Amino acid sequence: MTEPILKIRGLKAGVVDRSILNGIDLTIFPGETHALMGPNGSGKSTLAAVLAGREGYEVTDGEVWYAGKNLLELDPEDRAKEGLFLAFQYPVEIPGVNSTYFLKAAYNELRKYRGEPELDAADFLNFVKARVKLLELDESLLRRPVNEGFSGGEKKRNEIFQMAVLEPKLAILDETDSGLDIDALKIVANGVCKLRNAHNAQLVITHYQRLLNYIVPDRVHVLSEGRIVQSGDKELAMELEERGYDWLTKEAATA
Amino acid sequence: MAHSDEMDQVVSSLLDRAVVDGVESKRLQAMRETARAHFVERGIPPIEEEDWRFTNLGALRELSLHPAGHPQAGSISPNVLQRLPLSTIPGNRLVFLNGYFIRRLSSIVEEDGVQALSLAEALSKHSALCERYLGHAVQSHETPFAALNTALFKDGAFLHISAGKTVREPLHLVFLSTEEDTEQTHYPRNLIVVEGGAHVTLTESYHGAGASSGLTCSATELIVGEGARVEHVKVQDENESRFHLGAVAVQMARESQVRVHSLALGAKLSRTTIYAGLVGQGVECLLNGLYIPRNSQLADHFTIVDNAAPHGISHEYFNGILAGQSRGVFHGRIIVRPGAQKTDAKQTNKNLLLSDTATIDTKPQLEIYADDVKCTHGTTVGQLNPESLFYMRARGLPLEMARHLLIVAFAEEILNRIRNEDIRGALSEVISKRLGSDAEVRYD
Question: For residue B405, what is the enclosing H or E element?
Answer without folding.
Answer: helix B399-415
